[in-house]
Design goal:
This protein has helices spanning about 10-15, 45-50, 80-90, 165-170, 180-190; strands spanning about 5, 15-25, 30-40, 45, 65-70, 100-105, 115, 120-125, 145-150, 155-160, 195-200, 205-210, 215-220, 230-235. The protein has about 250 residues and is an alpha+beta fold. The strands form two sheets. Strands 2, 3, 4, 7, 8, 10, 11 and 13 form an eight-stranded mixed sheet that branches. A six-stranded mixed sheet has the order 1-5-12-9-14-6, covered by helices on one side. The longest helix has 9 residues, at about 80-90.
Length: about 250
């Protein structure tokens, strides 16, 4: 299964979204060895490709990508620290989402991908999160993450067009005790399996709610001369279901 987005019209989505192939890095400055990044062959989605991203009645809510908007407080365009401070007190969606801030990341402009491994100071490319540490069978129950672009520059959300459960099925025969990992995504591509990358334009004040434990993803500041600050919130822990009566 691939990503499913909540959106209005196909033409609206096509204005905000492009698609490209991906590649593995090899000894490239700033990147961890074997990081997976988009190529430069971006092209618009076709109408059929856009329609295939629309969810149906059976799509679980926790696997959806939602595009959101929040009016930002007045912020000095040159004050990145002020944006970090503003995020700490921001109610991201007026009570709809947890107010506990997960963290912020300030990214320079024109970075193909933005997420860094702080232990090595290098970017990791497309990856899957692992806050809930769920195994293969229940990976789609992981909490989604909310990201808001606090500006001043524009950003993109990058999303792989195959989820990590599908990817694991192409690599492993015994999945009973397998825990999906970013390395699975890299091995999938290294083995010659197809993976494409969607990029969705995110202006300051725009954001997304996405299943980052399920979908390979990253941020990007391509085509923006300005840096930007992204703020992140993690969804509430899923409520445990009561066992059914015999």
């Amino acid at each position: 299964m691939g990503p499913r987005l909540l959106f209005g019209t196909v033409s609206d989505l096509r204005r905000r979204c492009d698609v490209a192939s991906v590649r593995l890095t090899h000894s490239e400055p700033g990147y961890a060895p074997g990081a997976l990044i988009p190529c430069d062959d971006w092209h618009p989605l076709t109408a059929a490709e856009a329609e295939n991203l629309r969810p149906n009645d059976t799509t679980p809510d926790q696997t959806l990508i939602e595009l959101v908007h929040r009016q930002l407080p007045p912020l000095d365009p040159d004050d990145l620290r002020g944006r970090l401070e503003a995020a700490a007190s921001l109610d991201p969606l007026n009570g709809r989402w947890p107010t506990g801030l997960l963290g912020c990341a300030a990214s320079p402009g024109n970075w193909t991908t933005t997420t860094e491994d702080s232990t090595i100071g290098r970017r990791i490319g497309l990856h899957v999160d692992n806050f809930d540490r769920l195994p293969y069978a229940t990976r789609h129950h992981g909490r989604r993450r909310l990201c808001l672009n606090l500006g001043p520059g524009t950003r993109y959300l990058l999303i792989g067009d195959r989820d990590v459960q599908y990817i694991c099925r192409t690599l492993h025969t015994d999945l009973d005790h397998h825990y999906p990992h970013t390395e699975d995504v890299r091995r999938h591509v290294a083995a010659g399996h197809r993976l494409r990358c969607l990029r969705i334009h995110v202006q300051p004040g725009d954001g997304y709610i996405a299943p980052t434990e399920l979908l390979p993803h990253d941020g990007s500041t391509m085509n923006s001369a300005e840096p930007s600050v992204a703020a992140f919130w993690l969804g509430r822990q899923p409520v445990a279901r009561e066992p059914s009566l015999p």
